[in-house]
C-alpha cells in the first residue's frame, strides 16, 4: 500500500505479522451461486486467510468444494484446505417434505483455512480446537 | 434447491429405479485414505468372481482412479444380488507430495503421485454425486472417526438418500475400537470386519444383500 507505515518487522504487509480472518455472514452468502461461494472461499484461503462461514455450505456444495480444491492443488504452492464443522447433531431430523421443498438446513459454523497453516487439535460433537500458524 | 428441482430429482430417481430394476446396482466403496477400501473390494471380488480389483498398499493414495468390477453376483439366503463394485480413491481435502517422500520416492515420483491422487479424489466426488446407487463406507477402526472428511462424506451420502453401510475395518489390529465408530455415526448400522483376514465377511455379505438387493 503506497504511503503505508511499515510495521514492526519493516514490512508494510500487515498479513505478515498475523493471521487474517474473514468472517462471512449467512446474508452475504445467501445470494451467491454454489460456484461463487466456492470461489469466494478458495480465493481467500489461497491468499492465506482463515475463512469462517456463519452458516456453512450444503452437502452438495461441500462435495464441489472438495472437487474444485483438488483441481487447484499444486506442488510447493497450494496443498489444499483444512475445513472444520460440527457433526450434524441428529441425522434424519428433517422430514422428506422439508428436503422436497428445499428447506434443508445447512446452518453450521464452518472454518476453512490453508492446509499448511491450520491444524485440528481436537474435535468432538461439540468442541473443535484448532491451531492456526503464521506463514 | 427449489421445489421443482427437488421434485424432478425425486421423480428421476424413482423412474430410474423402475426401469433399471434388473441392472446391477453400482456400489461405491468410499472412505478416507488407508481405510482398507481396496482390500475390501478385492476380498469381495475374489470371493464371488475369483478376480481382484486392484493393488493394495500401505502407502496412502495407492488407488488413484476409480476402478469398477462389474456383475459381482452375491448369493445370500437363496437369493442373488448383482452389484458393480466401484473402488474409489481415498477422499481428503489436502494432498502434499512431501508426504510421499517418506515412502522411498524421489520428488518427481512424489509429485506425479500427488497429482494423480488429486485427480482421483475429484473423480471420486463426481462419482458420488452422479454415478453410484449405494455406498459402502469403510473406516479404519484403529483411528479416530471424528474427522471432517468423514463428517462431510456421510452428510453428502445422506443428502443424496443413498443407502449406506458403514464398515469398521481392521478389527484384527490391537487398537481396534468399533464402538467409537458406532458412536460417531449412530444413525447408521456399523458392521465390524477385517477385510485383510476375511473376518465377519458372512455378515458383511448379508448386509450388502439387505441394503443393496
From TrEMBL, chain A:
Cross-referenced Pfam families: OapB
InterPro entries assigned to the protein according to its UniProt record, in alphabetical order: OapB-like (IPR012017)
Protein name: DUF2073 domain-containing protein
Organism: Halorubrum glutamatedens
Lineage, highest ranks first: Archaea, Methanobacteriati, Methanobacteriota, Stenosarchaea group, Halobacteria
From TrEMBL, chain B:
Pfam families on file: MMR_HSR1
G domain sequence ranges: 26-170
Cross-referenced InterPro entries: GTP-bd, P-loop_NTPase, Small_GTP-bd
Gene3D superfamilies per record: P-loop containing nucleotide triphosphate hydrolases
Protein name according to UniProt: Era-like GTP-binding protein
Originating organism: Halorubrum glutamatedens
Amino acid at each position: 500500500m503506497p504511503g503505508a507505515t511499515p510495521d514492526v518487522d519493516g514490512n508494510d504487509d500487515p498479513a505478515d505479522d498475523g493471521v487474517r480472518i474473514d468472517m462471512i455472514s449467512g446474508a452475504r452468502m445467501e445470494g451467491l451461486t454454489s460456484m461463487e461461494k466456492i470461489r469466494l472461499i478458495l480465493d481467500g484461503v489461497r491468499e492465506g486467510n482463515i475463512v469462517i462461514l456463519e452458516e456453512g455450505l450444503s452437502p452438495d456444495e461441500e462435495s464441489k468444494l472438495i472437487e474444485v480444491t483438488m483441481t487447484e492443488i499444486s506442488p510447493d504452492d497450494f496443498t489444499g484446505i483444512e475445513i472444520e464443522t460440527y457433526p450434524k447433531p441428529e441425522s434424519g431430523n428433517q422430514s422428506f417434505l422439508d428436503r422436497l421443498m428445499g428447506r434443508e438446513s445447512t446452518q453450521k459454523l464452518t472454518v476453512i483455512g490453508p492446509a499448511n497453516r491450520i491444524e485440528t487439535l481436537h474435535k468432538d460433537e461439540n468442541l473443535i480446537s484448532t491451531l492456526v500458524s503464521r506463514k | 434447491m427449489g421445489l421443482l428441482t427437488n421434485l424432478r430429482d425425486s421423480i428421476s430417481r424413482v423412474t430410474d429405479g423402475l426401469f433399471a430394476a434388473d441392472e446391477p446396482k453400482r456400489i461405491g466403496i468410499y472412505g478416507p485414505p488407508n481405510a482398507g477400501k481396496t482390500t475390501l473390494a478385492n476380498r469381495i471380488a475374489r470371493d464371488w468372481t475369483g478376480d481382484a480389483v486392484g493393488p493394495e498398499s500401505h502407502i496412502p493414495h495407492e488407488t488413484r482412479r476409480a476402478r469398477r468390477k462389474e456383475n459381482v453376483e452375491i448369493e445370500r439366503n437363496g437369493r442373488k444380488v448383482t452389484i458393480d463394485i466401484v473402488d474409489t480413491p481415498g477422499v481428503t481435502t489436502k494432498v502434499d507430495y512431501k508426504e510421499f517422500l517418506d515412502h522411498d520416492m524421489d520428488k518427481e515420483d512424489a509429485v506425479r503421485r500427488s497429482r494423480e491422487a488429486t485427480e482421483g479424489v475429484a473423480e471420486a466426488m463426481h462419482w458420488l454425486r452422479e454415478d453410484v446407487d449405494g455406498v459402502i463406507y469403510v473406516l479404519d477402526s484403529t483411528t479416530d472417526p471424528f474427522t471432517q472428511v468423514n463428517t462431510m462424506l456421510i452428510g453428502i451420502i445422506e443428502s443424496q438418500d443413498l443407502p449406506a453401510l458403514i464398515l469398521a475395518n481392521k478389527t484384527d489390529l490391537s487398537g481396534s475400537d468399533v464402538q467409537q465408530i458406532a458412536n460417531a455415526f449412530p444413525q447408521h448400522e456399523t458392521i465390524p470386519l477385517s477385510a485383510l483376514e476375511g473376518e465377519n465377511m458372512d455378515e458383511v455379505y448379508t448386509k450388502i444383500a439387505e441394503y443393496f438387493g
